[in-house]
Input
Amino acid sequence: MSAFLDLPSRLAGRTVLIVGDLMLDHFVFGHVERISPEAPVPIVRFAREEYRLGGAANVAHNVAALGGRVEIIGVVGDDPEAERMRGDLTRLSIGTRGLVTDPERCTTRKLRVVTTRNQQVARVDYEEDREVGGAVEEALIVKIEALAPSADAILVSDYLKGVVSRGVAAAAIAAARRGQVPLLVDPKVPHIDYYSGATVITPNHHEAESITFMRIRSSEDAMAAASYFRERAACESVLITRGEHGMTLLGPAGHAELPAEAREVSDVTGAGDTVIATMTLALAAGASLVDAARLANRAAGIVVGKFGPSTVTIDELR
Output
């Protein structure tokens, strides 16, 4: 127990290399007072707007908020959103040497129209999600090989927006193996065959059901799915996140059930980012698999009480 209680103080200064799909979350807040006479939709009167880091960039923000050092590898467009992305990452002391510019893509941006009561009215996605190839894929692999040797852990954040190709995933896994550091994956179902050799994969229960063709309605179901998932993905360990039902962990030393710790749920957006960021940083700090999962579970319980993609601090964990 003392090792777990001391864990937050050991996170600072550990280096995590993140490979994945970077996004900007753009929120437009306003007041709804009437329905449009042109169509049965609400008229939103603009109040303010806000940008937040999303996708793999939100994972990086979570690692940085916990005191970790971060380098991030991903693709941006040649556009104003890319400059905003670089600026926001730099202000958070997140390394941007791994960013690759692809002029044929736009920087992924999700525009959400939200009422002042935090109710989402509409969402517009600006994205190009074809899988990277050619010179862009090669540039990403070169970045991985250059930055991985200084990492205490590697994290693959796959949002199915094109960055995590088979070649990029294989390069990240090979780099982790060479450096003898853990590699964790926040997965997407179509890419399950890309992650062979990962240390930990963290599907939510919907993803686990889709990959295993099993319904998860109980702890026993979750454990059976985790076992099949581990075999199917050819990974070392699996952590299935199950929302209000907590988490199911299956590792080399056995399994564990972690009950949910959320006291109040405001928004689950980005909760998976917080889970994998916290778990990766904890493993980088030398934590056991179970203690890393417990800390990630605690972090998730905090972040779902906040609106939109958010982070957790060391003080909140303590």
Notes: The chain has ten helices and 13 strands. The CA atoms of residues 271 and 300 lie 6 Å apart.
